Task: structure prediction
Amino acid sequence: MTFTESAERTELRAAVSALGSKYGAQYFQDCARQGRKTDELWSEAGELGFIGVNLPEEYGGGGAGMYELAIVMEELAAAGAGLLMLVVSPAICGNIIARFGTDEQKQRWIPGLADGSITMAFGITEPDAGSNSHMITTTARRDGDEWILNGQKVFISGVDQSDAVLIVARTEDAKTGKLKPALFIVPTDAPGFTRQLIEMELVNPEKQFTLFLDDVRLPADALVGSEDAALSQLFAGLNPERIMASASAVGMARFALGRAVEYVNDRTVWKAPIATHQAIAHPLAKAKIDLELAKLMMQKAATLYDEGDDWGAAEPANMAKLAAADAAVAAVDQAVHSMGGNGLTTEYGVAPMIALSRIAKIAPVSREMILNFVAQTSLGLPKSY
Ligand SMILES: Cc1cc2nc3c(=O)[nH]c(=O)nc-3n(C[C@H](O)[C@H](O)[C@H](O)COP(=O)(O)OP(=O)(O)OC[C@H]3O[C@@H](n4cnc5c(N)ncnc54)[C@H](O)[C@@H]3O)c2cc1C
Result:
């Protein structure tokens, strides 16, 4: 075990940080406010090999792992330009296809996912299921060699900028009649597939949508992996999702803290900069401690995942997500507070993080569901729901 990052990882961190700074928070927030996408940043990140850094080299990826993709996410978020679709496209969809897709599916999708020319969204959440994904009702029915999907999804990110959505649906077990989850690649231009924008109070270029699947007909090879092993396949994508949500939150906490530190070192309303008041310095120090603790757990989760230990990665991935979300919300709150009125101005750029940091407490899995997981799985406590 080593706590010093390798030369390659240090270089990657520096290179992503440089790209993040080139675009920065102003660019990101301008895109969101003007209704533009962060296409320039996404394309450049793809060309530099950052987006597909975790994907297999033989299909055009970087051949590294989730540790490296988390570095990409964290450094962009730390620059104020965290790209939500990194959580979804290369981390969830890319990992699942790379691990469980057929050779044809890998050749079709991974090179584009890796260089950023293809973006794939991920849809599991449904209006009547929410946190209880066992309740999803989007159904896939076989029709000869084809599949027909019907159902609805909600809060699905980035569908307007995606070529396809990896949809979690259910198929009927021929013997028992029970519904079991299965994963399907649904092109966003498929007949019967429609989307509706959800108005969100988020300064974020990446939008959320309700999706309607109305007799969407798909070829046999739309099914990713086995019809019978979707839960373990899902895990292969959901641990990376939690690692990336942690990386985004850690980066956001770093961004907010960085802005606050700069501000309080400069701002003087008595004899010395306000940073000299411990009521300002101590909460910022506490925020720094909390974000570093969360980051350490995130790195443990990424390391275990990259070693192929899906189950071993699950506990730290969940713990890191909860800790990073709490750290980000607290860091942003403290940053805004430390900056007084300027903390809420558009100019200082931290106020949008109040809402953005809260996403990490709700999505991709809420903090209560993580506490449930830890209570039941780590502590062996009974389930109440
Ligand atoms: C910005 C954003 C982007 C998103 N992007 C995507 C995406 O790309 N793809 C996708 O599939 N989904 C996405 N989601 C959806 C997200 O994963 C869900 O919002 C999340 O899983 C919570 O589900 P819900 O909103 O239905 O809340 P609910 O399940 O209704 O929960 C509401 C509250 O009740 C609590 N609760 C529920 N059950 C329990 C329990 N058993 N014990 C204790 N407390 C409980 C929850 O913790 C929460 O606080 C996104 C959401 C947001 C906000």
Q: What stands out?
A: The two ends are 39 Å apart (CA to CA). Strands lie at 120-123, 139-143, 146-157, 164-172, 179-187, 193-198, 208-218, 223-224. Residues 236 and 366 are 19 Å apart (CA to CA).
